[in-house]
From TrEMBL:
<feature type="domain" description="OmpR/PhoB-type">
    <location>
        <begin position="75"/>
        <end position="178"/>
    </location>
</feature>
<comment type="similarity">
    <text>Belongs to the AfsR/DnrI/RedD regulatory family.</text>
</comment>
<dbReference type="GO" id="GO:0003677">
    <property type="term" value="F:DNA binding"/>
</dbReference>
<dbReference type="Pfam" id="PF03704">
    <property type="entry name" value="BTAD"/>
</dbReference>
<keyword id="KW-0805">Transcription regulation</keyword>
<dbReference type="InterPro" id="IPR027417">
    <property type="entry name" value="P-loop_NTPase"/>
</dbReference>
<keyword id="KW-0802">TPR repeat</keyword>
<keyword id="KW-0238">DNA-binding</keyword>
<dbReference type="GO" id="GO:0006355">
    <property type="term" value="P:regulation of DNA-templated transcription"/>
</dbReference>
<dbReference type="InterPro" id="IPR016032">
    <property type="entry name" value="Sig_transdc_resp-reg_C-effctor"/>
</dbReference>
<dbReference type="Pfam" id="PF13424">
    <property type="entry name" value="TPR_12"/>
</dbReference>
<dbReference type="Pfam" id="PF13560">
    <property type="entry name" value="HTH_31"/>
</dbReference>
<keyword id="KW-0804">Transcription</keyword>
<dbReference type="Pfam" id="PF00486">
    <property type="entry name" value="Trans_reg_C"/>
</dbReference>
<dbReference type="InterPro" id="IPR011990">
    <property type="entry name" value="TPR-like_helical_dom_sf"/>
</dbReference>
<dbReference type="InterPro" id="IPR001867">
    <property type="entry name" value="OmpR/PhoB-type_DNA-bd"/>
</dbReference>
<dbReference type="InterPro" id="IPR001387">
    <property type="entry name" value="Cro/C1-type_HTH"/>
</dbReference>
Length: 1008
């Protein structure tokens, strides 16, 4: 399994693959369903090995697969915070998951030498001899400590809590102290040790897995490119160890039949040591086990001649024994893919009918078995297109089985459902190729990482082999193209609801059945006598199904299961519901009838849940929001959602979210109108109250001291745990579309009081993502709602939000006008806090417009009105920014320090980070570069933790300027590089930093 994949997602995919719900898997593993959900959703960063083993047993995984999952759960120092060193190849250094430069050539050699002897002392004499080649510099007494000091700085991570490798001065030398997860050499030794333990303990499969994992750590010659270390004894010994481990790995792998996996490694060994008899012996066995017996025998003959010519010797016992085993074919056969891997077609459909003209069209275009010259050079490709339920897959499967019956493509048929229709996430072509390649006997560790390479290998494996490939439910050309073979011996059948522009493909659009075909399908399922007894009702059934094959098949099977029903009864049931979706096309009316039948099969609680989902104003729900909507517990709501998923009435999305298809949403909304209006209103009110309660909690978590009026969670409902800024931001981001839908959709109904309050909770999310136009749209809807309600407090908040959004979008005139209006409205409120906040924001907008004198006066008025320490700190911070723009840096520094003193003991991390930024900026402009660097680094770290890349970009540029002034050009360049990497794409939403250095600061005021 690739290390880069998240463990939770892997476990979720494995569970879904075996068809278990979360509850079923948890019961089998002896775990709580909440615990399993936390693991799958990534809330548990590093699950215990015991938990993973229990889940592995519940999912029926092998010991090797469980071991891989346990390994996947271990933190990856290359991708996370901390420091990682690599010497098994060119010297590599990663700090906080980013490639880092160890420095000059001298420092690289010094770091490489210390890494080779990790956790052991290297004497000063050896360091001087190796690094400076026996010609130490004149300042020999200070040069080594200086270089070591520089390396320490290079190895210092910024991630909080990360412990870097330690360069320790010892008696007579220096020692690099580090852990296996920090140095690939130590990790290699650790894995080899485990492999040997497994081998000694009679666990060859686990041993082979650990050997294979150890081999992946090697990136080339140890410390390649560092000439002073090229012939160092430690490097030479390390290469000998690698050869030894390759032979050990080969011994285990060959016995397991994993010959292909060790052939490339053994070939590298014998290329480097042409007389290595043991490696040659293992290579002979691996080649023979891979079906290359002639190559293995040639290898033996070549080595026998070299031994005689160069050493005057004969092959030793290992080589002789290997030769004998190859001749006698006593080598374990390679792992063989299951037979089903090559015959994957779904079974033919017993009640297939109709489509005779389409079958003839395909038969006329399929290549004959003995095609005369000139033979084609590309594979024939046929794309079947049409609406959902029209029978594309049924037709493709029938064509494929007819070809098999004719003796074609009998040994190789590959099938995949690409999930291309709108209500399922499309399959990743890279993942599909990985699955195909494994089925085609490509070992997992030999499957390329990138999509183009996988596609090329797939084409190579199918070249010259008659193969039938059925790509079902394709989403797009981009999804399909990497999956297409290149050999004319192959045949490709594609089904899709979309028209695909595939070069060279023959396209066959499918329409609904004719009346005769639809009636024939009905007869096949329920019998000719039953249909013939009432031909008028039969005609009504197929027409009211829109002659859509899926709809006809579904109602026919339902009638088949109910012998007491007459055909007229079924026709009547279908007819009763058609007016519910009367505005849709005939085919859609037929699907509505199918929806009715599925809905009527549900139990009453699940029916009610489905109806109420149609009243949800947003795009999707969670078990929590569904519980609030239905007035039930989360567990009960989860059960109903699971049943709806089973009935294909609701789509399960990643992250424990659920969505209705658009047609089903309209259907559910119509059903809900059957309920009492008071019941509908109560359900929606419960939902909005829940959203406001949780959103206000998230808002307070991000911005303490900015309290919004928040109702309690409605009785019976539960709120998700929000205990950190990350929790709050994640919840708001996940629910953003739903909250916006509520705000913008509530302006015309009786829930306007929720609109402006929910709009206010989105403030900090918009500040982080920088989508100003969307924020303007939301705030305008909130302002309209507040004015309609006559709520001057809400009107003040929304005018502030609008002013901030317009200011960040670059429309400063509009921003100043709105914020001035906010000041006027807030002056009528009894609590002068709102006036202080409005004047604060107005002052910053004036600063941005270049009116610093007016801005400072406005901010001083705000400071006089502010009473809360947090608000005073924020106001002082903004005042300091205005002084900076005016050029009065001492005053700016004084204000920023005063702001920090007020915010230090508060939980307002955001405000504290902004104040650090203002102080660092003023110090830089005042020429106090050393202190500015310290302050700006801390500010950048806090903004990184707060996930505020726009703020970080502004400060990184300032930090780069200060470092340049101090002569730290390399560090300055690194800051500029990171700042550039954080910039949004040209077509992405603007971030605060893109609007100028000062633009980030008018948004720092978290007006509640």
């Amino acid at each position: 399994m690739p290390e880069t994949r998240e463990l939770g997602k892997v476990l979720q995919e494995l569970r879904q693959r075996v068809g278990l719900t979360q509850q079923e898997a948890a019961d089998l593993a002896g775990l709580s369903v909440a615990g399993l959900r936390d693991v799958e959703q990534g809330r548990v960063a590093t699950p215990r090995a015991r938990t993973i083993r229990l889940l592995g047993g519940a999912l029926g995984l092998s010991a090797t697969e469980v071991a891989d999952l346990v390994a996947l759960a271990r933190p990856n120092p290359r991708a996370a915070g901390g420091v990682w060193l690599g010497v098994l190849g060119p010297l590599a250094l990663r700090v906080d998951g980013v490639e880092a430069d160890p420095g000059s050539e001298t420092q690289r050699v010094l770091l490489g030498l210390l890494s080779l002897a990790a956790n052991a002392t290297v004497s000063r004499e050896e360091l001087l001899e190796v690094v400076w080649g026996g010609r130490p510099p004149a300042n020999v007494g200070t040069v080594l400590p200086t270089r070591i000091s520089r390396l320490r700085r290079r190895l210092a991570p910024a991630a909080p809590g990360a412990v870097p490798p330690e360069l320790v001065a010892t008696t007579g030398g220096y020692r690099l102290s580090c852990q296996p997860e920090q140095l690939d050499l130590l990790h290699f030794h650790q894995l080899v040790g485990r492999a040997r333990q497994h081998q000694a303990g009679g666990e060859p499969a686990l041993a082979a897995d650990r050997y294979a994992e150890a081999m992946t750590l090697w990136r080339g010659e140890p410390l390649a490119g560092l000439a002073p270390l090229a012939d160092h004894p430690a490097v030479t010994a390390l290469l000998r160890l690698w050869q030894t481990v390759v032979v050990e790995y080969a011994t285990v792998a060959i016995d397991l039949g994993r010959n292909d996996r060790v052939v490339p490694l053994l070939q590298q060994v014998v290329t480097g040591d042409s007389l290595h008899e043991l490696a040659h012996a293992k290579l002979m066995l691996a080649l023979a086990g891979s079906g290359q017996q002639a190559t293995a025998l040639t290898l033996f003959d070549d080595l026998r001649r070299r031994l005689a010519d160069e050493l005057g010797a004969s092959p030793g016992p290992e080589l002789t024994q290997a030769h004998r085993r190859v001749l006698r074919q006593q080598v374990p056969r390679p792992e063989v893919a299951p037979v089903r891997a090559h015959r994957q077609l779904p079974p033919d459909i017993a009640d297939f009918c109709g489509r005779q003209s389409e079958l003839r069209w395909l038969a006329d275009r399929l290549p004959p078995i003995d095609q005369p010259a000139p033979r084609p050079t590309a594979p024939p490709i046929y794309a079947l297109e049409g609406m959902g339920g029209v029978g594309k897959t049924r037709l493709a499967v029938r064509v494929a089985h007819q070809l098999l019956a004719a003796g074609r493509y009998a040994e190789q048929q590959l099938y995949v459902d690409l999930h291309g229709h709108a209500d399922e996430p499309p399959a990743d072509p890279a993942a599909v190729l990985a699955s195909f390649l494994q089925l085609l006997a490509v070992p997992g560790d030999q499957i390329p990482a990138d999509l183009p390479s996988r596609s090329a290998l797939f084409r190579d494996r199918l070249h010259g082999r008659p193969s039938l490939l059925l790509l079902d439910n394709a989403a797009s050309e981009e999804q399909v193209r990497p999956l297409l073979p290149a050999s004319p011996e192959n045949l490709v059948l594609i089904t899709s609801r979309r028209s695909l522009a595939i070069d060279g493909a023959h396209t066959l659009p499918l329409d609904v059945f004719s009346e005769q075909e639809a009636t024939e399908l009905l007869i096949q399922v329920v019998g000719a006598d039953r249909v013939g007894s009432d031909p008028t009702a039969a005609r009504q059934v197929v027409e009211r199904c829109g002659r859509l094959p899926l709809a006809v098949a579904l109602v026919a099977r339902r009638l088949q299961a109910r012998p007491a029903w007459r055909l007229a009864d079924l026709a009547g049931r279908i007819a009763e519901a058609r007016h519910r979706l009367a505005e849709l096309a005939a085919g859609t009316r037929a699907l509505r009838s199918v929806f009715d039948l599925s809905y009527q099969a549900l139990d009453p609680p699940t029916q009610r849940t489905f109806r109420l989902l149609g009243l949800h104003p947003g795009d999707d729900v969670t078990p929590y929001s569904a519980a609030a909507l239905t007035g039930t517990t989360v567990s009960a709501a989860q059960g109903c959602l699971d049943r709806l998923v089973d009935e294909h009435l609701v789509i399960a999305l990643p992250g424990d979210r659920y969505r209705l298809h658009d047609l089903l949403r309209a259907y559910a909304h119509d059903l809900a109108q059957q309920d009492e209006p008071t019941a509908q209103e109560a359900a929606v009110t419960q939902l909005l109250t829940w959203y406001l309660s949780v959103a206000a909690t998230a808002h307070r978590q991000i911005s303490p001291g900015n309290e919004l009026p928040a109702p309690s969670v409605p009785g019976g409902a539960q709120a998700p745990g929000i205990v950190s800024d990350d929790d709050a931001v994640a919840w708001l981001a996940a629910e953003q579309a739903n909250l916006i839908a509520i705000v913008t959709g509530a302006a015309g109904d009786n829930n306007r009081e929720y609109a402006w309050q929910l709009a206010a909770t989105l403030r900090h999310l918009f500040l982080r993502v920088g989508d100003w136009q969307e924020w303007i749209r939301v705030a305008e809807a909130g302002l309209a709602a507040a004015r309609h309600c006559g709520d001057r407090h809400g009107e003040t908040l929304m005018r502030n939000d609008l002013g901030i959004a317009y200011g960040n979008s670059g429309d400063l005139d509009r921003a100043v006008a709105l914020l001035a209006e906010a000041v006027q409205v807030s002056a009528t409120l009894p609590d002068q806090t709102q006036q202080a906040r409005s004047r604060n924001n107005l002052g910053i907008a004036l600063t941005l417009r270049g009116q610093t004198t007016e801005a400072i006066a406005e901010l001083q008025r705000a400071l006089a009105l502010a009473e809360k320490p947090t608000l005073r700190g924020r106001t002082l911070n903004n005042l300091g920014r205005s002084y900076t723009v005016q050029g009065d840096y001492p005053a700016a520094i004084e204000c920023a320090r005063a702001a920090l003193s007020l915010l230090t003991d508060s939980s307002d991390v955001w405000g504290y980070a902004l104040a650090l930024g203002v102080l660092g900026e003023a110090l830089t402009f005042d020429g106090q570069f050393a202190e500015a660097v310290t302050v700006l680094r801390r500010a950048c770290e806090l903004h990184r933790q707060q996930r505020a890349p726009g703020e970080e970009v502004v400060l990184l540029r300032l930090l780069s300027d200060a470092l340049t002034e101090l002569g730290e050009d390399e560090q300055a360049a690194a800051c500029r590089l990171r700042a550039e990497s954080l910039r949004p794409p040209p077509d992405g939403p603007p971030r605060p930093s893109e609007l100028g250095r000062a633009t980030a600061h008018p948004v720092d005021l978290p007006t509640p």
